Amino acid sequence: MHASTINDSKQIRHDSICLGKFNTILPPSAKCAYDEIGNVSCHHYEEGVALMPDSSNPWLSRPAPLETPLPVLGETQIPPATGPLVPQGVPAPDRVDQLPVRDRQNDAELWWLGTHGGAGESSLAELVPEWPAANHGWPRTPGNTPVRVVLVARSNMRGLRSAKAAATQWAAGLVPHVEVLGLVFVADAPGRLPRPLRDFAQVVGGGVPRTWSVPWIESWRLDGPLVLSNAPREVRRLIDELSALVRPGAIGTTNRKEQQ
Question: Between the CA of residue 70 and those of 65, 123, 231, 238, 260, what are the distances in Å?
């Protein structure tokens, strides 16, 4: 079906029918269409021009499901990339949804960036003091070395939307000094995520290099020091994999020799 053959009376605004298709890349005026027998067309148009198809849309990359059983990690294992490693030049989010850039005098091997208040960046930073919390802003440090950042968000709808905005800000090339290693979903409640949140998390995760999931940890609600050795297996695996990723020449990062 071509744009010229679509009857305007059968066009509808982009909405939940197309959730998971072009999710953060579509401009507000993009439309989808019904064909002659009422089926929803998978072709999208903006003023008569076909937009990016599913096969070339980085936001449709699907990371591993949030609750996939976790294998034991060996020292040399590095998590494979499930999304783009570098910005894709997508349209920028609204300015009100963009995180600020904060100048930092100190450098760090890695920064935790909570995309909203209460995301969990401080808790993760407490586990590894050498990896500080970014205080909900993109860190910018002295020198020309890319700043490695891991996005952190709660798994509720507010957290996922803020993570999508932050990932889009990076994908639009607005923070060129930053290397995003991935996104951590921190459980907002015990138990399995509802289906709409699982589906939306997969869409959001498709726009970053990789994702991890941290389960609900009841003991973290109490007042007391957080110790990595006492953390759940998923948290220890997260730290192990990030330690492997920040090593020079790690496969699946922008610091690999053949990518320089």
Answer: 11, 22, 15, 11, 32
